[in-house]
Amino acid sequence: MGPFTLAIDTKSSSIVSSDVSNRKIQNLQLETRKCFASVSMEEEKPFNFLRILFEGIIAGGTAGVVVETALYPIDTIKTRLQAARGGGKIVLKGLYSGLAGNLAGVLPASALFVGVYEPTKQKLLKLFPENLSAFAHLTAGAVGGIAASLIRVPTEVVKQRMQTGQFTSASDAVRLIASKEGFKGLYAGYGSFLLRDFPFDAIQFCIYEQLRIGYKAAARRDLNDPENAIIGAFAGALTGAITTPLDVIKTRLMVQGSGNQYKGIFDCVQTIVREEGPPALLKGIGPRVLWIGIGGSIFFGVLESTKRFLAQTRPPPSQHSKHD
């Protein structure tokens, strides 16, 4: 019995050692996952979609409104630069033209985006292994962008028409666009909008989430607000620069009105290159990178702060999960 007992002890000690090692690896993986889902993935036992949706709506809406209000003048200058054909001059008056109407669309669009992004991200992270987390973030960002586009596009059309001086109020813009161009006029440039925002949302959120994962793993602690803001600024500026040509095409198609200067995306590209040269596809890249870089800093900083605040105000029954 002695040798048999010794064999069992040795094997059990090996199993215990293996379990401890596995538990450490699992804890490390869990910590890594938590770093890019600080609010909505706090080890909730049931998948509470309504709570995630509610928190996403509040956090996303708050972040979207703060960013849009702070950086609207830069966005207006960018739009006027892109809309100007040839050597047209840029008017610097009325830089807040259309802000009120735009906020009416930004609030629900941002809320819808984050409300769709968070639960989609969590589901995909549970389905895919750790080495495919980037794919989960890319996909969730794209899905959120498509959902939000239903609100974003009409908002963007009205905003840019007002920024370029075609209308003086959001209500007049909606009424006149619908009467002259039909309901589809409010979705002018929808294809180019998706062409821009589909990769933009996917790339920006993927870069942001992956940088947070790497930074938190290296620092071995939660990120603070300034660190989230810096990562958000880098992700936004880089993505903004990459997608500038798509933004120029989208702007031209949206502001052309009923004149139909361009027959579609490809015709728009060919016309711009032929009449203005390839550099015209990078019009407004400076203001765009500045705007989205600063915007990414503010957006993600406010987003994470709001998500953390909402997590702390959850009812007591869910607090035990934070100690798992």
UniProtKB/TrEMBL annotation:
<feature type="repeat" description="Solcar">
    <location>
        <begin position="132"/>
        <end position="214"/>
    </location>
</feature>
<feature type="repeat" description="Solcar">
    <location>
        <begin position="50"/>
        <end position="123"/>
    </location>
</feature>
<dbReference type="GO" id="GO:0000095">
    <property type="term" value="F:S-adenosyl-L-methionine transmembrane transporter activity"/>
</dbReference>
<dbReference type="InterPro" id="IPR002067">
    <property type="entry name" value="MCP"/>
</dbReference>
<keyword id="KW-1133">Transmembrane helix</keyword>
<feature type="transmembrane region" description="Helical">
    <location>
        <begin position="95"/>
        <end position="114"/>
    </location>
</feature>
<protein>
    <submittedName>
        <fullName>S-adenosylmethionine carrier 1</fullName>
    </submittedName>
</protein>
<feature type="repeat" description="Solcar">
    <location>
        <begin position="227"/>
        <end position="309"/>
    </location>
</feature>
<dbReference type="InterPro" id="IPR018108">
    <property type="entry name" value="MCP_transmembrane"/>
</dbReference>
<dbReference type="GO" id="GO:0031969">
    <property type="term" value="C:chloroplast membrane"/>
</dbReference>
<keyword id="KW-0809">Transit peptide</keyword>
<keyword id="KW-0812">Transmembrane</keyword>
<keyword id="KW-0677">Repeat</keyword>
<dbReference type="GO" id="GO:0009658">
    <property type="term" value="P:chloroplast organization"/>
</dbReference>
<comment type="similarity">
    <text>Belongs to the mitochondrial carrier (TC 2.A.29) family.</text>
</comment>
<keyword id="KW-0472">Membrane</keyword>
<keyword id="KW-0150">Chloroplast</keyword>
<dbReference type="GO" id="GO:0005743">
    <property type="term" value="C:mitochondrial inner membrane"/>
</dbReference>
<keyword id="KW-0949">S-adenosyl-L-methionine</keyword>
<keyword id="KW-0813">Transport</keyword>
<dbReference type="InterPro" id="IPR023395">
    <property type="entry name" value="MCP_dom_sf"/>
</dbReference>
<dbReference type="Pfam" id="PF00153">
    <property type="entry name" value="Mito_carr"/>
</dbReference>
<feature type="transmembrane region" description="Helical">
    <location>
        <begin position="134"/>
        <end position="153"/>
    </location>
</feature>
<keyword id="KW-0934">Plastid</keyword>
<feature type="transmembrane region" description="Helical">
    <location>
        <begin position="49"/>
        <end position="74"/>
    </location>
</feature>
